[in-house]
Amino acid sequence: xxxxxxxxxxxxxxxxAAWITVNRPDKLNALNRRTVEEIVAAxxxxxxxxxxxxxxxxxxxxxAFVAGADIGEMAELSAEQGQEFAxxxxxxxxxxxxxxxxxxxxxxxxxLGGGCELAMACHVRIASDNAKFGQxxxxxxxxxxxxxxxxLPRIVGxxxxxxxxxxxxxxxxxxxxxxxxxxxxxxxxxxxxxxxDYAKRLSGKSRVAQSxxxxxxxxxxxxxxxxxxxxxxxxxxxxxATEDMREGTSAFLAKRKPEFPGR
Length: 263
Ligand code: CAA
Prior knowledge:
With 263 residues, this protein is α/β, with parallel strands linked by helices. The protein has two domains: 2-203, Alpha-Beta Complex (2-enoyl-CoA Hydratase, Chain A, domain 1); 207-254, Lyase 2-enoyl-coa Hydratase, Chain  A, domain 2 (Orthogonal Bundle), CATH 1.10.12. Helix content is 48%, strand content 18%. The strands form two sheets. A seven-stranded mixed β-sheet has the order 1-2-3-4-6-8-11, with helices on both faces. The protein has a four-stranded mixed β-sheet with strand order 5-7-9-10. The protein is globular. The two termini are 25 Å apart. Bound molecules: acetoacetyl-coenzyme A.
């Protein structure tokens, strides 16, 4: 296991998955600016590492994934600084969502405000059964500022998103699963193993295809349906230029397991 530590983030590579752990447990892993910069740098490091197939993002300690943006750091900001901070958070979370490798959120407790937004910037969300989700910014006289007003309705639908954003209600993992905010819920003690298993399953697939699929789904969501269809057909076509596609189809026809070279 290779391990490199930032100040507020732990980074380790285990069985082909990069584990990025937000590590401010005494502040319930709240996101100050430095922590966000380190998460983005860690995702970039994982994306650039050919030995890494997927990325798992989680929180340190038993209580929180991330309990939001750091309220202490935000409390004294001016309007201009608030806008700049939101832009910084949005661009940072866009970079995580835009990673060319699957990013799995392993949600081990509170995912509130910026923490819920961070989880939503990940591609798949696996939650422990004691996880709690919400956008409680209205309790602070704020609105979500790290993409929550946009990603939440795209994930759970406008009505459910407005319910959460207007009430600030906190929901449990089962409710998050029911509305599609969590993809899976597992017992808290099994979360790490479940995320590792999922990452391992992904690593057996074609990396090139996964990267093209991410681009089609995520970039396509910002386009008209007809433009997105063009994007899909272009990316589909590009798959035919890859060794992975030749290997996948010939392995199927030869009734053997594919060994994808990742090119
Ligand atoms: N920012 C800064 N510090 C935070 C924090 C946050 N978002 N969340 C928790 N902490 C700190 C607490 O201040 C406390 O620190 P001290 O021990 O130094 O006092 C420590 O973490 C432990 O927290 P609590 O004692 O409050 O723990 P609890 O179990 O009683 O409550 C909680 C847990 C319900 C999650 C509560 O901490 C809480 O409500 N946190 C704030 C949640 C929130 O409002 N998040 C949204 C932030 S705004 C945002 O994210 C904007 C955006 O969209 C970008």
